Amino acid sequence: MKLGIQMYSLRDICKTDYEKALKFVSECGYEGVEFAGFFDIPAEEMKAMLDKYHLTAMGSHTPWETIEKDFDHMVAYNKTIGNTRIICPWIDLKTEADAKAIAEKFNAVSEQLKAQGMTLYYHNHSHEFEQDNGKYLMDILGENTTKDSLKFELDVYWVYRGGVNPVRYMKKYADRLDIFHIKDGDKYDGTPVGMGEVDTNGVLEFAKAHQMAWAVVEAESGITPDKQMEDVRLSADFLKDKLN
After folding, report:
1. How confident is the model at residue 117 (pLDDT cuts 50, 70, 90)?
2. What value does the CA radius of gyration of the chain take, rounded to a whole number of Å?
3. Side-chain-side CA neighbours of residue 70 (13 Å)
4. Residue 181 CB contacts under 8 Å (≥ 6 apart), including other chains
5. Residues 43, 77: contact at Cβ < 8 Å?
6. Are strands 85-88 and 119-123 parallel, antiparallel or unpaired?
7. Is the Cβ–Cβ distance between 93 and 99 less than 8 Å?
8. How confident is the model at residue 30, as a pLDDT?
9. pLDDT per position as a tens digit, 67-106
10. ∠235-185-241 over CA atoms, to 5°?
C-alpha cells in the first residue's frame, strides 16, 4: 500500500508556490498526490513537476459542478497528468431524495468517465451519516449506485465524526474501496495521524488485508503554513512503517 497526500493539507503553500509543496511532500516520503485544485497551472507544467519529484497523480478532488459543466477540459487535464481517479469531494445531502437524485447523476457520468479510462469516486464527510427513513444517507447513495458505477474514498475521520465505526464501515463497502483517507482527530478537531481517537491501527490492518492501493493523508487542522507542514510531516513519520 502506497502513501499519498491530499494537497489541501498544504493549501496555503499551494496557493503561492505549488512546486515547493510538491518538493516538501516528496521529501517527507509521500509517493503520490491527490489534488484539490490546480491553481491555474498548465497540465504539462504540473506533470513536469510531478515527474521531477517522483510523484504519482493518484487522484483529484473535483467539485461536482466541474465534473458536470467542464467535463472535456477536466478529462484532458487529468489525462495529461496521468490521473484516472475523479473524486467528488462533497454533495450537500439532507434527504433520501437528495441521495437518490445525485446517485442517478453519478451513474450517468460514471459511464462517460469509464469511456475515458477513468473512475468516479465519492468522498464523504460526516453529514452523510445523518438518517432519513431509518437509513444513513451514505447507504442510500450506495444502494442506488453499484460498485462499478461509484467507488468510495472513505474518510475514516469523518466516518468516526458521524458516529460510525470506521473499520466496520470499510468492511461493509470493501468491494468499492481501493483508496481511503487516513485521518485522525477527536470529536471536535483533526490531528496528525496517530494523535487522535480514530482506530488508525484497525483501519490500516483492514486496508492491508484487502490490498488497498493508497492510504491518503489529509491534515486539515493547521491554520498556518508551518503548522500544515508539521502535520503533514508528522503523519508521514507515523505511517511510513505501518503500510506494508
Report:
1. very high
2. 17
3. 11
4. 6, 123, 153, 154, 155, 156, 157, 158, 216, 217, 218
5. yes
6. parallel
7. yes
8. 98
9. 999 999 999 999 999 999 999 999 999 999 999 999 999 9
10. 30
Q: CA geometry: angle at 71 spanning 57 and 43, to 5°?
A: 40
Contact 184, 152 (CB under 8 A): no
Q: Which amino acid is at 207?
A: A
The mean pLDDT value of the chain amounts to 97
What sections of the chain are H helices per DSSP?
A: 11-16, 18-28, 43-52, 64-69, 71-81, 96-115, 137-143, 156-161, 166-172, 200-209, 225-239
| φ/ψ of residue 58, rounded to 5 | -100, 0
Q: Rounded distance, CA 154 to CA 175, Å?
A: 12
Cell of 69: 459543466
Average pLDDT, stretch 51-77?
98
pLDDT at 241 over 90: no
The Cα 208–Cα 239 span in angstroms is 13
User: Per this entry, what is the length of the chain?
Assistant: 244
Q: What are the tens digits of pLDDT across the range 130-176?
A: 999 999 999 999 999 999 999 999 999 999 999 999 999 999 999 99
Give me the residue label for grid cell 481517537: 197
The residues that bridge with 237 in the sheet, in sequence order, are: none
Instruction: Pull the grid cell for residue 135.
Output: 437509513
Are 50 and 23 contacting, i.e. CB atoms less than 8 angstroms apart? Answer: no
Nearest to 77 by CA among 24, 111, 35: 35
